[in-house]
Amino acid sequence: MEPLDPNAFGEEQMCFGCGPTNTHGMNLRFFRDGDAVVTTMQPQPGWEGAPGLVHGGLQATLSDEIAAWTVFTLCGSYGFTTALEVRYLRPARHALPVEARGELIEHEGARARVKVTLTQADVVVLTGTASFFLPTREQAERIVGDALPDSWRSLARDEP
After folding, report:
1. Which of 32, 54, 76, 92 has its CA 20 to 30 A from that of 138?
2. Structural domain boundaries of the chain?
3. pTM of the model
4. Is the Cβ–Cβ distance between 22 and 15 less than 8 Å?
5. What is the CATH class of 2-133?
6. What is the dihedral of CA 48, 49, 54, 56, to 10 degrees?
């Protein structure tokens, strides 16, 4: 597996899922595995929902993160999530790492869709799909309402 650069969006970026220096975040690291992207999340104290189980919202966050990094890695630009659908199949245990895998289903122009799978000890606990809009720099700046940081500017989709 090929490690992906955790500072691709800048060392200072504070993404909850992948921000390398976000002390409150997941600090996920991603790897390319052929036509897929993978990561592993080790649940931390306080990340429980029901006793002993990983909070469902954090599983959805992990799903969104693996999907976003799949788009970034396989489509060559970042995207904004437009839809996320997850199906919780089994409880995710707090004591075990959660492995996430993203596979590109579709990419056409400014749109992409990703299949997401979360597993623990080789048992699938969640499946889902995420849809993305891949903006140009100008579109991204309109969406965020400000100029993009330098580290993000070159990562946007090329003009149509």
Report:
1. 32
2. 2-133
3. 0.95
4. yes
5. alpha beta
6. -140
